[in-house]
Design a protein that fits this description.
Elements lengths: L1 H19 L4 H22 L22 H32 L8 H9 L8 H15 L1
Helix pairs in contact: 1-2, 2-3
Length: about 140
């Protein structure tokens, strides 16, 4: 059963990653949800086999048979964070839909400019970046 759940978590991670690399906002949001579910599954698998509740009191069970509460707490935290990020991305997607009537993510204008010039960001020296900035200022005036 653990192997099947580990394979399922791997499938969720791979499908979520593939969807995150797409250009449509709806696919990106679904991919983020799949990544969140995969992370929750991995956290719950890390908790090991179920055990006695980790409650402290008069009848405290043996620590060897109690469940580890940390993976459960981390999974709940991951659920809350995923919910917040998903709500934020849904609001951004709605705003993009209202403005453009399309949910495709467009290229950044600076990325197009750099691609047209044949440069990559990490290949520019300080002098080349200053020269490009001067050329851009001259072209804008």
């Amino acid at each position: 059963m653990t192997l099947a759940l580990a394979l399922l978590a791997g499938g969720l991670f791979s499908a979520g990653t593939w969807l995150l690399l797409q250009r449509r906002l709806t696919q990106i949001i679904i991919g983020l949800g799949l990544l969140g579910h995969g992370a929750n599954l991995v956290l719950l698998l890390a908790g090991g086999s179920p055990g006695a509740p980790p409650l402290v009191g008069e009848a405290t069970p043996d620590p060897a048979v109690t469940a580890d509460p940390l993976p459960q707490a981390l999974a709940l935290t991951a659920i809350v964070i995923t919910f917040g990020i998903t709500a934020f991305l849904l609001s951004l997607a709605y705003r993009s839909w209202v403005l453009t009537r399309d949910d495709e993510v467009e290229d950044d204008l600076e990325d197009r400019y750099i691609a047209r010039r044949g440069y990559r960001d990490d290949e520019l020296s300080d002098e080349q970046a200053a020269q490009l900035e001067r050329e851009r200022e001259e072209a804008g005036q």
